[in-house]
Design goal:
Length: about 100
């Protein structure tokens, strides 16, 4: 979860199950390669499931696992905290920047 894209991917998959290109459009401007790397890492950690449907061409869906859904709750709490403290954080940044000059 420490990379640039994992949080965005988990948040998007919290809304629905997506195919690769659908997810790529939602997490714009992520590259195809970076989305592939991110999804593979999240799958390896047990946060995302990958389902291949036997169609022609093959259809692959990505979804959050139970563990991924539990992480989504934490991320939403974190986002709520950030929203609630945004003004204070902005003030702290301005104060810090003023002292640094």
């Amino acid at each position: 979860m420490g990379d640039k894209w994992s949080v965005s991917v988990v948040c998007q998959l919290g809304e629905s199950t997506y195919r690769f290109n659908e997810l790529r459009r939602l997490v714009n401007p992520i590259t195809q390669r970076m989305l592939s790397v991110t999804l593979r890492a999240l799958e390896r950690d047990g946060l995302v499931s990958r389902t291949v449907h036997p169609t022609m061409p093959p259809r692959v869906d990505y979804a959050l696992t139970g563990r991924g859904l539990s992480l989504l709750d934490v991320l939403r709490d974190l986002a709520g905290w950030a929203d609630a403290h945004a003004e204070e954080i902005g003030s702290s940044r301005a104060e810090f920047d003023a002292q640094a000059q």
